[in-house]
Amino acid sequence: MFSSSFFQMFSWLLGVSLLCGLSLSCTDQQYSWPSKMPRLCCPKCEPGTSMAGRSEDTCDKKCEPCEGNQFMDSYNVEMDCNDCRKCDQPNMEVKTRCNSTQDTVCSCLPGYRCTDEPCSMCVPIPTAADPTEAPPTTASTPGPLTTLLAQRAPIRDTVWFLAIIVLLCAGIAVAVVTKIKPILRWFRSRYGYFLAEKPAAQDEDNVSKPVQEVCGKCEQLMDICVKD
Predict the structure, then answer these.
(1) Where are the domains of the chain?
(2) Which range among 142-146, 206-210, 222-226 has the greatest average pLDDT?
(3) For a disulfide at 45, which of 4, 49, 68, 141, Cβ 3.0-4.6 Å?
């Protein structure tokens, strides 16, 4: 007697478990019902409608259409439709108006772009002069300042090269003068009398010229006197 009752209880629990397992195979357009011990796959309300009521034991239900600024874009078991979105953010406008099966689609005014896919915010489109813009991946054309600096670079290098050449020449000249001074001193001390003869000859020439000029003038005066 006891074993027969136990077997019946086990069979009932097994049947309930199998029914519960079958309810898990409902599609995305169905829902398992009842909620506590689901044994049925009931159809959901279609897009554009919401569930206004349903039976506790069967799949009987009542779906009502979305009205006003409400929508439902999928199969559902919701008791109310969703409210339509408002494109009321700065620099935002309505791209597609809301209907019973689709929410409002927002977009940005010209010169602005959305920060994400739902377009929850509009920001200015970066321009070429905007410092917040990411640097370009391609090589940019050099500006006037860059071109001027590139033109001055060879001139600057030439000036430095000439300055180095002048300094080297000056150093060589100083070294030569420093080395030649002892040689000149030795030459003057050894052959100084040869150097002294030239100034004496120059003095004689300087002295003889005035005397000859004076004598010439005197002879001219004497000739004039004799003629008179």
Answers:
(1) 23-83, 84-125, 176-228
(2) 142-146
(3) 49
Domain 23-83 CATH (choose: 2.10.50.10, 3.40.50.1980, 3.40.50.11310, 3.30.470.30):
2.10.50.10
Q: Is the pLDDT of residue 204 over 80?
A: no
- Report residue 47's pLDDT band, with 50, 70 and 90 as the boundaries: very high
Q: What pLDDT was estimated at residue 219?
A: 53
Give the DSSP letter string of the chain: -HHHHHHHHHHHHHHHHHHHHHHTT--TTEEEESSSS--EEEEPBPTTEEEEEE-SSSS-EEEEE--SSEE--S-B--SSPEEPP---STTEEEEE--BTTB--EEEEPTTEEESSTT---EEEPP-TT-TTSPPPSSPPPP-HHHHHHHHHHHHHHHHHHHHHHHHHHHHHHHHHHHHHHHHHHHHHHHHHHHHHHHHHHHHHHHHHHHHHHHHHHHHHHHHHHHH-
CATH number for domain 84-125, candidates 2.10.50.10, 3.40.50.620, 3.30.420.10, 3.40.50.1470:
2.10.50.10
